[in-house]
């Protein structure tokens, strides 16, 4: 897994990404999001506020929604790259909106099945399959 191009991996919908990298980036981003939310809750005193009023404070919701925007974009970009690796259009990300079967389909296609062997219309294989050998 190459961390040098993390901006391209997380914020661009171009190219392909390996299944391994998809899972690692998705899990790492989920953990980072959870840690940030927990820190935010501690700083804002959400536990104390919930005990007193039974609701989250408005400032928590505002910051949470602001953080949700880049987290959603990252998730969409990662999934689009997986669809590209399967040699399918990024528009397939919308299959997740089909009740019940859509989420299962996206999980199997993006999370379980191997990508196209060798280059496809979305770029070279992220595994290096089909690439010219390095002679020198």
Describe this structure in words.
With 136 residues, this protein is mostly helical. 59% of the residues lie in helices and 0% in strands. The protein is built from five helices and no strands. The longest helix is centred in the middle third of the chain and has 28 residues, at 58-85. The radius of gyration is 19 Å and the shape is elongated. The relative contact order is 0.16. The mean pLDDT is 87.
Topology diagram in text:
Layout: H1 6-11, H2 19-44, H3 46-53, H4 58-85, H5 101-112
Helix pairs in contact: 2-4
Radius of gyration: 19 Å
Helical stretch count? Answer: 5
Beta fraction = under 5%
Order of helices and strands: HHHHH
Question: Separation of termini?
Answer: 23 Å
* Class of secondary structure makeup: mainly alpha
Q: What is the oligomer described by this structure?
A: single chain
Query: Spans of 5+ residues with little confidence (pLDDT < 50)?
Result: none
The helix fraction, in percent, is 55-70%
Count of beta strands = 0
The major β-sheet equals: none
Q: How much is the average pLDDT?
A: 87
Shape: elongated
List keywords for this structure.
136 residues, mainly alpha, 59% helix
Compact overview of the structure:
Helices cover about 60% and strands about 0% of the residues. It is an all-alpha fold and about 140 residues long. The model has no long low-confidence stretch (mean pLDDT about 85).
């Amino acid at each position: 897994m190459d961390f040098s191009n993390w901006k391209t991996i997380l914020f661009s919908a171009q190219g392909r990404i390996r299944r391994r990298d998809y899972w690692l980036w998705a899990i790492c981003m989920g953990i980072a999001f959870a840690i940030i939310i927990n820190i935010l809750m501690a700083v804002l005193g959400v536990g104390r506020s919930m005990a007193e009023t039974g609701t989250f404070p408005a400032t928590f919701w505002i910051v949470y929604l602001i953080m949700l925007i880049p987290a959603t974009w990252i998730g969409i970009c990662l999934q689009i790259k997986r669809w590209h690796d399967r040699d399918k259009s990024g528009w397939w990300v919308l299959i997740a909106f089909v009740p019940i079967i859509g989420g299962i389909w996206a999980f199997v296609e993006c999370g379980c099945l191997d990508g196209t062997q060798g280059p496809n219309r979305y770029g070279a294989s992220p595994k290096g399959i089909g690439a010219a050998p390095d002679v020198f």
